Task: structure prediction
Amino acid sequence: MKIFIAELIGTMTLVLFGCGSAVLAGGEVGQLGIAFAFGLSIVAMAYGIGPISGCHINPAVSFGAFVAGRMTPKEMLTYWAAQFIGALIAAGILYLIASGRAGYDLATNGLGQNGWGPGYLGEYSLTAAFLFEVVATFFFLVVILGSTSKGAPAGFAGISIGMTLVMIHIVGIQVTGVSVNPARSFGPAVIVGGQALTQLWLFLVAPLIGAGIAGFLAKQDLTVNND
Result:
């Protein structure tokens, strides 16, 4: 139960403040500010809930850890449940806050949902979006699994992981809004509906593929030292 609550709170923090930076302050902080909001959310939670659950707050991270042999199927499913529920709660809270602003419209302003194609940010293609999410999640998991391995310097994992997420957002916001996290995509998409919901499949599948590859390599000791 402690792990479930920790992962739920951690995922809520990531979605509320990461997506919230785009919805509530995007015009003021810009793309760089949004990138740092996501990354700093990870840094904060790594030290806040890391000692309890390891601070996955991302189904792709839990899946990568499972493939690497660091989690059982039951543990992974517990993490997934907490992460998806936490993301949905956070998206609901964000909507309630955003809707209190004059002129806010859910269909027009959204909740920081992910997407691709005509009308979405850089209007990248499906192929570009899928490839970015697979590759970005792969590198994200390489950093996560390496930073949390036995041979890594103690106490620095939160910083390296958070700054990697900042880097990924700086490069990829215009491509997909950056998911690399199925729960982060799930919460806003469920509430916004429409195109965000129909495109959700990519942000469930692609991050798991990238994470699975990284987890497999970690298990084989090809890129990082496994526990």
